[in-house]
Amino acid sequence: MIVLVIFAYALIIYLDLIPLYREKRWRDFGLNMALTLFTLGIALLISFDVTIPSPAYPIKNFITSIIGKQVSYE
Amino acid sequence: MNKEMITAKQGGYLLILFMIGSNLFMGLAPSAKSDAWIAVIVGMVMAVPMIFIYARLLSLFKGRDIFDILNLVFGNVLGRIVALAYIWYPLHLGALVIRNLGEFMNTVAIPETPMLLPMLFIGILSIWVVMAGVELLGRCSKIFFPIVVIIMIITTLLVIPYLNFDHLKPVMYEGIMPVLKSGFEIFSFPLAETVLFIAVFSALKTDKSTYRVYFSGLLIFGAIGVLLTLRNILVLGDDIVGGVYFPLYAEVSRISIGEFIQRIEVSVATTFVITAFIKVSVCLYVTCIGLSKCFGLKSYRSIVVQTGLLMVLFAYIIYENIMDMIFFASVYPYYALPFQVILPVLTLVIAEIRLRAGQLQAVKRS
Q: Considering only alpha carbons, which residue of chain B is nearest residue A37?
């Protein structure tokens, strides 16, 4: 699993990130690099079986506290 | 300028497929029970003013998408902060739709396969189509729309022997309130999500007004929605429709004509995959456009791959099980309200005021 993730990311970086570096489009390169590191981190954590906290639960709690009632399961 | 364009027809098809995407299969308005078909009509009526607002924004600023509009109306700094909301919302929505598809595959179609796999493949397809541009998306929808409609018509014809009109009665047994509440759910789940199309329809090549595209899409979706909801209720009855996760699938799996035409629920799965693919692609496209406008990139294509992967991974971690998904769907209308109603109304009000005051005169090109 981990080997697959690293291999896939190597391929993606070679095909997607390096051309931006060659064309010297620094803004595109920077944002792409940041996103790549972020998703690589998440993918590695998933492959290590780490539970990543989901933003859905804080959103749910926040909205339930605003509308002031427990929403039913229907 | 080699700007990408889609025709009005393609735009309409795209809009309808986007609205159908994943909602009909989850079952529209389960809490209204046997009055769900009335709730669809109520939801459509509720959506008319909002769609009027979206179309008005588009026709005020022709050829500009929502991020340009926010930039013009709110100014450079505040506009970018507000634009962050419209980057987050399609990302989250796309993740929800991918997750719906994954749960569908995992629950009914291919339970042995890990959920990441179908999600990853639909993500890769969406990345591909967004890389190719919005033109390709328009042409895709033009091809897919007849397929979806033909499958709907055929299954409707085959399901006729199973109709039981007693399921419709009693009409509005619990009063008007559940119907209105479900109408609001339908308003927020498929209909007002078309706020994202303010970003897509900047590429619309039409002399006719965007009002026409928007409202024809809404009417056709309404017809399909009422038909399918009515079918669900008539075949399954309100108890089962509220009880299963994917009522349309359960309904079509009952078809057995002469012990020969059976097991055609795969056709419903096909339409689900098609419409989910279109919806995810539109969400991904809007997210990428927003990110590239917000950070001043030259082309949105340089970040599509990473954004798509982020969406898939986000969909993978967002819920622990299907119950969380169903529960979040009940909170979703309130969560989506700022993106769907409050921000567009605010934008339109400020835009109108600034246009009247003459501050935005130069940008109005109509």
A: B306
Residue B1 belongs to some domain of the structure: no
Q: Is the CB of residue B145 less than 8 Å away from at least one CB of chain A?
A: no
What stretch of H or E contains B183? helix B177-186
pLDDT value at residue B366: 44
Which residue range(s) make up the domain with A46? Answer: 2-67
**Residue A74, in any domain of the structure:** no
Please check whether residue B41 is in contact with residue B222, taking contact to mean a CB–CB distance below 8 angstroms.
yes
pLDDT tens, residue by residue, B182-195:
888 888 888 889 99
Binary contact (A31, B298; C-beta < 8 A): no
Is residue A53 situated within a structural domain? yes
Question: What ipTM does this complex have?
Answer: 0.91
Q: Is residue B252 part of a domain?
A: yes
**Mean pLDDT (whole number) for B237-248:** 80
- Nearest chain B Cα distance for residue A55, angstroms: 7
For residues B146 and B244, which has the higher predicted lDDT (pLDDT)? B146
**Residue-range definition of the domain harbouring residue B165:** 6-363
Characterise B258 by phi-psi region: left (phi > 0), alpha (psi -120 to 50), beta (else). Answer: left
The overall average pLDDT reported for chain B is: 87
Count how many domains chain B has: 1
Number of domains in chain A: 1
- Select from B78, B62, B46 the least CA-distant residue to B181: B46
| Candidate from A46, A56, A72 with C-beta closest to B318 | A56
Query: Does residue A72 belong to any structural domain of this protein?
Result: no
Q: Do A35 and B335 touch (CB under 8 A)?
A: no
- Nearest by CB to residue B307, choosing from A35, A52, A74, is A35
Q: How confident is the model at residue A74 (pLDDT cuts 50, 70, 90)?
A: very low
Q: Is B327 on the interface with A (CB under 8 A)?
A: yes
* CATH number of the domain bearing residue B18: 1.20.1740.10
Strand partners, B205: B7
Residue B268 belongs to a domain: yes
Task: Tell me the per-residue pLDDT of B324-355, one tens digit each, with 9 for 90 and over.
Answer: 888 888 888 889 999 999 999 999 999 999 88
Give dist(CA B79, CA B74) in Å, integer.
5
Q: Read off the tokens for B268.
A: 């419903």
Distance (Å, rounded) from C-alpha B318 to C-alpha B324?
9
Q: How far away is chain B from the Cα of A41, in angstroms, using its nearest Cα?
A: 11
